[in-house]
## 1
Amino acid sequence: MRYAFDDSPLPCERTGYIYGGVRIDGMLIKEGFSSDEDGSAFLAAFGIIDMPFSAVLDTILLPLSVPMEMKYRKQCEEEKEAEDVSV
């Protein structure tokens, strides 16, 4: 389960930076309500409680997250083009 620590070396598999905290909270809520595992209700509750705070912080950090998102999207496009050329 890859949520807060996005350590994927592939740029196309990363969680987006623009409103990334809200996206992660949405994934936690979805996973919490769709899973029968122990602790999943805690994840959903945490996501619901954390979402407004994430929205505020993500808005404040928007000037930093937009350039980062553009950088990783460009890397993803270059990666896909390299795959298309090699095939």
## 2
Amino acid sequence: MTGTKVANQEGAKPHYSNVALTPALTAQQMATQSLKAAPAAYQSIAIKETDGKSFGVTWEGKQAYDNRCAPIVVERLKSASFNLATVLNDVLG
């Protein structure tokens, strides 16, 4: 099977590569996609050491975080669905 979804730049439309997929390659691609998406999800979180023993955490708040990250979650779920289908097609024929 060819045509796996690849991670995209923030705001860009998803696209597909013409790489022949195997379950092992797909697993590597899935991990890479998630790692590339993570910084956008966590960009507003700041952790600062306060006294050498504890840390303070600041962020934009739940509603703003949820609103900003909803498209990231949707894209990751779409990609995961496609990747799972690819693996199942490879394994089950």
## 3
Amino acid sequence: MGPLIEALRDYDWVVAAVAAEALGKIRDARVVQPLIEALRDENDEVRSRAAEALGNTGDARAVRPLIEALNDDVGPVRWSAARALWQIGTPEAVAAVKALHRRAKKLANGNGVP
């Protein structure tokens, strides 16, 4: 597991993204913090894969960082964070996803501020 955690910090975004995906399949508590840190990676694909991996872990420690990721500038990262929160399923996580859905509906109906 150590080499995968190191690969998560690789300068090559492809290596880091694949490492994030692999770590999410391990579902070990030790991968959660490195994946949380990867939510702040400069590459959006790494952030997206890290969010997905955190959802796969089901670890509630990821809820707050994933809620923050709902504000990412990149749509696929926000989507991955929302899916991960739904997978984790704590009341706080589900509430955050429902709030995001309500905001999106308002925007789609022209009732919100972009």
